[in-house]
Amino acid sequence: MTAYEPVIGLEIHIQLNTKSKIFCSCSADPWEAEPNTQICPVCTGHPGVLPVLNRVAVEKALRLALALGAEVAEVSYFARKNYFYPDLPKGYQISQYDQPLATGGALPLENGRRIRIRRLHLEEDAGKTKREGGRRFVDFNRCGVPLIELVTEPDIRSPEEAAQFLTRLRQLVRWLDVSLGHMERGHIRCDANVSVRPKGSQSLGEKTEIKNVNLIDLLRPAIEQEIQRQIQVLEAGGQIEAWTLEWDEHQRVLRKMRGKETEADYRYFREPDLLPIVVDRAWLEEVAAELPELPWEREKRFQEEYGLPEYDARVLTTERALADYFEAAVKAYGGSPKAVANLVINHILRLMNEQRLTWDDLRVTPARLAAILRLVDQGVIHKNAAKKLIPLVQERDQEPKVVVEAEGMAQMQDTAALEALCARIVEAHPEEAAKYRAGKKGLLGWFVGQVMRETRGKANPQEVQAILRRLLEG
Amino acid sequence: MDYTATAWDIAQAVRAGKASARDVLEAVLERIRAVEGASVRLLAPGEDPEALHRQHPGVHAFITLTEERARRQAEAIDRRVAAGEDPGPLAGVPITVKDILTVEGVRATAGSRILYEYIAPYTATAVARLEAAGAVVLGKVNLDEFTFGSSGESTAYQPAPRNPWDLDRVPGGSSSGSAAAVAAGMGPLSVGTDTAGSIRQPAAFCGVVGLKPTYGRVSRYGLIAFASSLDTVGPITRTVTDAALALQVMAGPDRYDATAATRPVPDYLAEMHKGVRGLRIGLSPDMFRITYVDQATGELVETRIDPEIEAAVRKAADLLADLDADIVDDVPLPHLEYGIPAYFVISRVEAASNLHRYDGVKYGYRTPEPVEDFWEMYRKTRGQGFGLQPKVRILMGMYVSAAQYSQRYYERALRVRTLIRRDFERIFDPEGPYRLDVLLGPTTPTPAFRVGEVYGDTVLMQYMDQLLVAANHAGVPAIAVPAGLNRQGLPLSVQFIAPDFREDLLLRAAYAYEQAVGGPLPVPSRLD
Ligand SMILES: [Zn+2]
Asked: What is the DSSP string of B199-236?
């Protein structure tokens, strides 16, 4: 049996997080707005209106292009993609065709493999239609929301790589503040072109296109299924036809939408209502100067500079705000970065997740986190107490020290008092003390527990253990 | 002030408090009642527009009269004058608007059934600027459906406008109602549009002035698009002064039109009076003939233009030479004859796309018949809503922009367009062999033709625009100026063409000529 190798390319639409739409001043985030409330004559294609390009959309596209190392065209053009559909009010979509904004570049996967980018261009989104009670309704809110279309070369070799590409792209667009990147809201929409070929072959087989696999968890099984189907067809001596497929979420299978013969002719031509996009050197340099360190660069630096394990570095660079938070805390603290990483990963992220906090909501600032770490270092609180302290600092929006005092969370610093307490506990439990002395060493923990209960956790358990051992064995 | 007053005279009188905007308006409304004729409407099946015209003979310029709105505007102007405020340079001037431009709250039909009862939610920039300058909108005037025509006859709203100089003749098109209204004394200024001569040709047929500005000089926002890369908005007036006055107000950048030029707008009225001494004015032999495809044989046929028109142009050159202009003969425009075929392709590709939006989903006409699905709704709506001309153009546009033909037709037409543009660059090049300031030529190859004479021959109809379309391809400004009457009493017209954004030169030549030829034509007496 021949061994096959999948060849996968992705076509991804990214919704930009601009304030206004790409060609008018309506809000570009119509999520959850009542149907047809975020519209105007321009985005609903009234007679006589003209599009006016939103410069911020171009800037965001430039940011992504530069981050991917793509080549930005000095002059690029908008074109009309003509077709009829009720959710497309002008009967054409303003897109870019023969001269896109940027070409080339690549996105690195975790294993370092670079997935090349073919092109990246700007376009407007269409609206939505739905059927209800035998009638069809159209919501134009999404019309004119700015999108970047990004097309990869067929460099992806497995469903896992495809999923990883999408995950990393999502991370990047959020990192660059290009898109909110909520996949469940359709901010990132993905079509996959899939073909297979005998391993080692350099030629490309006929491909099929899987439409609208917009969740990472969907992309993987959909591509996997299609690879298996194609291999079966080829093994049975058949030929792959250039179908367009869609994912049926109910049955969790791919279905054929249409064959190649019904492929539309969009009669592209240059949009006469818009001037060419001219990106001069100065503009490009300005965007480049403001480009942040990329997530994978930062991940590497966290390992090298702070000695973090790969896992920690990766987690801490999933989001730019998180990475910024971590680094600010490291600087404020001045101690072990790994200790900071532990607190952030184990406690801060959990807190944010449980309480559904945004970075703006977070009251445990990097300075306060550093203060907590210092309290541990100084022995004022035990390191396990941080778990309890962090939510309290968040809740009260107070300095950790203030919270520790108010809650009486400080460890017992008075050794004499602690010794007296331990002695009282040993005296009060002669039977257990006898058993311990007879060799049942496991009872030491039980004694420690008694002391800790009496002190309501404020004693340093290591210290308690040492005192008890001395009392019981001495 | 009576209905024959020019925009300049009205504005001066109203601003000085010597006439009230309300009185000026009433005089013009009175005139409209006297000469407008039938009330224009969508034809019922089987109805004969000619019968409607005979029943109520007249000019039939208006699709929508906005009398009450106009009264409110006029009264507001009068209040401003009374309060000592500046009512604007067009204070109290009653204007008409070609029904391809939007006016907020007023229906915009584009001369088509498919926009029936569509009420525009905003005002076109050019119109808004005129209103802000004190103009009073009388109403929306008729046109060829979606501007697709050169006679005015293809409108869905009938009877179509007639030529005020001879009611059996067409006023030209597509700004048919605009030129007819201005010529007939129904408002001294109309806002028209020109994609391949649609301002200048009807202006020529009706004996009025029509100015097509440089592409981008006047915002297209609110102009219902035909061929977006060729469409321009400009004034139709009885005098060159009024054209200058109107352009002054309409021109300039617009935040709603990215293709509107940001170049500063000169003082046209001041420039206009500078005379033609030392201006280099060219004549081209290529403007005295037209070339077209004979429908029967498919051969290219060349014919000379009407001899009376040619004579009028040569006479104009003599008059300007007497004013010390330098006349440059034999200026070549070798690609002029390809203007119409290239225009056929480019305009139809853009038109087909621009007309996609009329689908019955959002506004305008929707088929009242039951439908299976929205595809059938599309087919029926567009089938019933569009007239013949849009359908012909959509079909051809779809064809020549299809992936397999686009190279052969569309790309090629764009190259022809570049060549025409270079013809003009060469003759206007200050370092070149001709160094022209303006080009002088005829506006149309013939005077106004009879109703029904050319209509139906879509191809011949468009070759009527051969001398006009070059300026649209090249983007340069052009003006049509009346050149007296021919032996039959029909208006003749000459055309001036200037380099990009040199409307100032255009107006200098046009004004000098208008004065030399004996002033503007009067409102034709035959109507009374
Ligand atoms: Zn909008």
From this structure: THHHHHHHT-EEEEPPTTTB--TTB--SSTTT-EEEEE
